[in-house]
Design brief:
Order of helices and strands: EHHHEHHHHHHH
Strand order of the largest sheet: 1-2
Bound molecules: fe (ii) ion
Number of strands: 2
Number of helices: 10
Distance between the termini: 34 Å
CATH superfamily: Ferritin, core subunit, four-helix bundle
Number of domains: 1
CATH topology: Ferritin
CATH class: Mainly Alpha
Radius of gyration: 19 Å
Length: about 270
């Protein structure tokens, strides 16, 4: 994550607790604090990891919100607009679910958010290019990496309520990834297109820039990596739904690399 951050509060109002609203708002299965020692290194590291996951999901909320705004502006087909809005809600629910886990592990809900990753700024590029960047960069590529890592993480950790929370968002992430492929296919098929496709060469060039950016990100938390060097703490982290840091990084690099073959298959 970037160095420049600001604090946001990830809390609930009491509205969602009122019976009138309760059925419209996702529940919190982690309402009670953990009985584990909140000061133990493993719990502190796990708390930070779930806070980071919360922030990543909120970045997803902001991204999907931006995407829906673009779709409204170009008067995209109604079903596509509705799906984008569903994605906003799903990312919001993922964010709240993971915040619930972080709070259960002692988080205050006051989280540092990276400024440069949080919101996507509109540019003066044509709207079809801004849409293509989101569909290809965020949905086709970014959601694929997120889905790969989620599936991998679920397989790395033992069964627990933390693992269940990850399993419960899996089908949503499948939807987000699939929308990337299917929307790009629609755009590429000029006869059915509601948004001009910027071309295969554009996609290839953008993929190169995207991969370069993804490889430049620092995704290893030094404290988390240190904790995994201790067998007892490592076992606790796995129980708390956190897979081994260095293995996670390796899987991340594999997922980024796999985007090349995924894009080749799509374009051929
Ligand atoms: Fe998500
Ligand atoms: Fe997603």
């Amino acid at each position: 994550m970037s160095e420049d951050t600001f604090e946001l509060s990830f809390n609930d109002s009491s509205l969602g607790e009122q019976s009138f609203y309760k059925r419209h708002v996702g529940g919190n299965t982690f309402a009670d604090p953990t009985s584990r020692d909140l000061k133990s290194p493993a719990v502190q590291v796990a708390r930070k990891a779930w806070e980071d996951r919360t922030v990543s999901e909120y970045i997803g909320v902001m991204g999907m919100h931006y995407f829906h705004g673009l779709l409204v502006d170009v008067n995209a087909p109604m079903d596509v607009q509705e799906l984008a809005l569903l994605c906003v809600l799903q990312e919001q629910q993922h964010c709240r679910r993971f915040r619930g886990i972080a709070s259960h592990l002692g988080s205050s809900g006051q989280l540092a958010v990276p400024i440069d990753e949080l919101s996507i700024q509109r540019t003066d590029e044509p709207l079809n290019v801004q849409i293509a960047k989101y569909v290809f960069g965020t949905l086709f590529c970014g959601e694929q990496i997120a889905l790969d890592l989620l599936k991998w993480s679920i397989n790395q950790v033992p069964d627990s309520p933390y693992r269940t929370a990850m399993r419960e968002i899996l089908k949503d992430e499948v939807l987000h990834t699939q929308m990337g492929t299917d929307l790009l296919t629609q755009m590429r098929d000029a006869s059915a297109s509601w948004c001009d496709y910027p071309g295969d060469d554009w996609v290839r060039q953008f993929l190169g820039e995207y991969i370069e950016h993804m490889l430049s990100r620092n995704i290893v938390d030094a404290e988390e990596a240190a904790c995994f060097e201790d067998p007892a703490q490592s076992a606790q982290l796995l129980e708390l739904g956190i897979p081994n840091t260095l293995a996670f990084k390796e899987q991340y690099l594999v997922s980024v690399e796999n985007l090349k073959s995924k894009t080749d298959r799509f374009l051929n």
